[in-house]
UniProtKB/TrEMBL annotation:
Annotated family: Belongs to the FAH family.
Pfam family, one: FAA_hydrolase
Residue ranges of every copy of the Fumarylacetoacetase-like C-terminal domain listed in the record: 128-334
Keyword list, A-Z: Hydrolase, Metal-binding
Single GO MF descriptor: metal ion binding
Protein name: Fumarylacetoacetate hydrolase domain-containing protein 2A
PANTHER family reported in the protein's UniProt record: FUMARYLACETOACETATE HYDROLASE DOMAIN-CONTAINING PROTEIN 2A, FUMARYLACETOACETATE HYDROLASE DOMAIN-CONTAINING PROTEIN 2A-RELATED
GO process annotations (BP): oxaloacetate metabolic process
Key word Kinase present: no
Keyword Hydrolase applies: yes
Length: 335
């Protein structure tokens, strides 16, 4: 088939999509940090997976918090079958999840939150995909029309930093902007999904900040491609936890907020998403195989600095805070 014919077919397929889906043993180091206590777990677990190190040193661990600000159960320290990264844990499938739930129910290896440093909750994923122009207010503030199909671009896994790590201002840009985003974390290998299959492939959700160099994204530099403006070092704070889908009452009704130096800049809600999380995963799976640990940023609400009059950009010394209801808050200093 001629190339243009293929493009026409893809265009019709995308329009059809829019119409259809618009809706072991504990380590010696760890022992000194464990708090001995009884632990009660309900039948429905609020599971918040975290990657962390202890403030007094030592290796990385995989843990589970059962509530925001609560104690952490270091599941990777209790059973040697559980790896110390969420990506490898997800690759292990349902058996490892059952093991983690058993450890939680037993109340073993409980650590106070104050004793740990949170890392990004998932790292070294195969794909870090992003969706642009996915809130109507964000389209309106830039004078852009609502897209018919998801606008897809990417960052790199190496762009990810933790929930309290510093954002580095690059020397080649002075127009660094904020974008608070809900992020999807894939739990199982999947391809060519339909709406009935997608829920089983999503593991959970986390908070992301899609830091952006507007002078590289919005100009004719790099041929108009987003990539260089989106993928500079430290441009993807993530965390503090990956909250399992079962722990969230309604993923399509969560507040999304950004503060700069304590001043509220973005105040949206995931109910405003044009393409919902399930729609996005179904759409991307038509083009590529999604793998355990892959992360998908779903877009940002209105309130970016670029669209303000006059425009506002991050400066050295600023503190950027990003919060999504029920998921947690990032706090990143700009240096």
């Amino acid at each position: 088939m001629p190339y243009r014919g293929k493009l026409r077919l893809l265009g019709r397929a995308c329009l059809a999509f829019r119409n259809s889906y618009g809706k072991s043993e504990r380590s010696t180091h760890l022992t000194s940090n464990i708090v001995g206590r009884n632990f009660s777990v309900s039948s429905t677990l609020d599971m918040r997976f975290v990657q962390f190190t202890f403030k007094n040193g030592g290796p990385q661990h995989l843990g589970v918090q059962l509530k925001q600000g609560g104690d952490i159960i270091a599941v990777s320290a209790v059973d040697s079958r559980i790896p110390n990264t969420l990506k490898k844990f997800l690759e292990g499938g349902d058996d490892l999840l059952k093991t983690a739930k058993r450890i939680i129910a037993e109340g073993r290896s409980i650590i106070p939150e104050a004793d740990v440093n949170f890392l990004a909750p998932v790292t070294r994923m195969d794909k870090l995909a992003c969706i642009g122009l996915n809130y109507s207010g964000h389209c309106e503030e830039q004078g852009m029309s609502i897209p018919e199909t998801p606008v897809v671009f990417s960052k790199f896994p190496s762009n990810i930093i933790g929930p309290c790590d510093n954002i580095l201002l690059p020397q080649i840009s002075d127009k660094i902007d904020w974008e608070a985003e809900l992020a999807i974390v894939i739990g199982k290998k999947c391809k060519s999904l339909n709406n009935d299959q997608v829920e089983d492939c999503i593991f959970g959700y986390t908070v992301a900040q899609d830091v952006t160099a507007r002078d590289w994204q919005k100009s004719k530099r790099n041929g108009g491609q987003f990539l260089l403006g989106k993928a500079m070092d430290t441009f993807c704070p993530l965390g503090p936890a990956v909250v399992t889908k079962e722990s969230i009452c309604d993923i399509n009704n969560l507040s999304v907020k950004t503060w700069v130096n304590g001043n509220l800049k973005q105040n949206g809600n995931t109910s405003e998403l044009i393409f919902k999380p399930h729609d996005i995963v179904v759409y991307l799976s038509q083009f590529m195989t999604l793998l355990p640990g892959d992360v998908i940023l779903t877009g940002t609400p209105a309130g970016i600095g670029y669209a303000r009059n006059p425009p506002e950009y991050l400066q050295r010394g600023d503190v950027l805070e990003t919060e999504i209801e029920s998921l947690g808050r990032l706090r990143n200093k700009v240096i």
